[in-house]
Write a structure and sequence with these properties.
With 664 residues, the protein is an alpha/beta fold. The protein folds into 3 domains: 6-126, Chitobiase/beta-hexosaminidase domain 2-like (Chitobiase, domain 2); 132-461, Alpha-Beta Barrel (TIM Barrel), CATH 3.20.20.80; 476-540 and 577-664, Alpha-glucuronidase, C-terminal domain (Alpha-d-glucuronidase, C-terminal Domain). It contains 19 helices and 18 strands. It has an 8-stranded parallel β-barrel with strand order 7-10-11-12-13-14-15-16. Strands 2-1-3-5-4-6 form a 6-stranded mixed sheet. A two-stranded antiparallel ribbon has the order 8-9. Helix 7 (242-258) crosses helix 8 and helix 13 (446-457) crosses helix 14 (463-475). It is globular. It starts with 19 loop residues before the first strand and ends in an 11-residue tail after the last helix.
Length: 664
Amino acid sequence: MDFSPCWLNYAKVADQRYNQVYICCTEQDPIITNALYELKTGFDSMFGINSQYAADIDVDKLPGTLVVKVNIERDCDLHPEGYWLKGQAGMITLTAKTSRGILYGAFALLRKIQLGLAETDIDTKVEPSFPLRMLNHWDNMNGTIERGYSGNSFFFDNKQILFNERTRFYARLVASVGINAVVINNVNVDTTATKLITREYFDQLRPLANLFSEYGITLYLSINYAAPITLGDLDTADPYDERVKQWWKAKAQEVFSEIPNLGGFLVKADSEGRPGPFTYGRNHADGANMLAEAVEPYGGKIIWRCFVYNCQQDWRDRKTDRARAAYDIFMPLDGQFKDNVILQIKNGPMDFQVREPVHPLFCGLKQTNMMLEVQIAQEYTGQQRHVCYLIPWFKEILNFHTHCGKEADTVADIVSGRTYNQTNCGIVAVANTGNDYNWTGHDLAAANLYGFGRMSFDSSLSAEKIAEEWIKLTYGIDPVVVDNLRTILMMSWPAYEKYTVPLGIGWMVNPSHHYGPNVDGYEYDRWGTYHRADWRGLGVDRSSKGTGYATLYNEPEKSVYEHIETCPEELLLFFHYVPYTYRLKSGKTLIQHIYDTHFEGVEDVEKMIELMRQLEGRIDPGAYGRIMQRMDHQLWHAKEWRDVINSYFYRKSGIPDEKGRPIY
């Protein structure tokens, strides 16, 4: 195998308590077949045995034997994708309502055994937290990946779809953490990818869709809104034009007849130059509903991204605000979208910055299906060259109270469907995988892939618990390894924030590739990515006296964000222009906080490196070498961030560091 098994290595467990395992199941379908295969593979590897399939076994007559009984109970009181694991001496029962539940339960059982639980300790009933648990891959058909930091695509190469051992292992990996939907191609659909919905690619797509289905995963495709022009002979993509409507209806019939297990389409429209309904004076509901009507007969869904920031502005304009764009465009359309349309809303109003407020659309929309979009591809958080464990941040987002007038008012409540009694909703991440041996470029970045899936299936899990699971499954249960890696992961996002951008301001990166410090890199561009620093202070006034963005939230957040004294300090510069001499709750001035945190961030990386060095000889040497190489780069780069940011603000403010440290 020319790729890492990641957390599916099924390493031999210390307690070799079973000399035989029997797996009993009376039902069969492709998903159950894969679940049973996974159980056998896992038990054989963990216990060094040749486990057996059997119709039934009397456990009392077989000491040292574990019997796993797999039962489908279609009338049981479980979610269709939920499972119930129940153990007693020598036996574990896995019960589910559907074969998907059996698959997720099988992976959960293997996870528990690897983590050291005996059968008598197992009694858990788990139901998925979100209906859709999706990965968006930004893979291009030439094999490149937009914002890809882990090699090239393992889905595409040279305009062809790849189908091989790695594809199957990918399905196993993501199914093992509960992912049930995957978009394989970039939302920025180029000319070749536009043809994925033509006969040229159906024969290549079908095996992939079938493979995914056998692991409980539904295939989705990103489509080009202008396909009637690009692929057809029309001169318009106007959603009100009957020819366009009929073109999409015919296309949907063709695609779903060839790939009946397709889930639907993901659309990025009227954003960053992508075509969309604005071209024809229509709105996003017009465009989305036209497509939704076309796929509705086949059970298809239209997932419509809300990343709409064609609100270009002059940098001298202090009233226009890119952060408001999606809210101002989509909020008036609440209740106008068809039921098989889901709005895919980014976690914050900008673009996956290291710290942003929760998107106000989650506070406002009440009659529209919503998905939360996060990014585990670390575009602005170190590009998988820095360790930056993002699950703690995602947990904060999910736990944010929107005060939308309902008792269940967190973002998690909304995108789970609990708040508004919806079923077409969920959570999605921009994927961080590629064809590197370790899948994610940085070995520790796999914690974000694993963590996103586990959090999506069971949002009650803490970020620390998820990290500990991943470490033990990947590197074993050596307490030094577990403690050190868990500490590194939990330190990493706060450390990255310290040595990069202060207090929620964002965007101090090099344009285009977005890597490395460049304080004014986006300061005068047309996309509204400003920090507004001058000799007196910095930050953007988004109060009611500024752009008014703070008023888009419900109370009490509206009032909290409105005033500099009550605004959470981690978001202070996002919402307010603040003088350098302003004193924070710590008693430090803003400028001293900037200096101190940037030095502290570098010190945190040095601590993480020391913790990692203590693991030499305790984990696989190849993994250790790769991680250390990345962390050495991270330390160098953290120092560059520190020095560039501190020097910039020293030169702007003229205020020296109280501690007399080198600032250039």
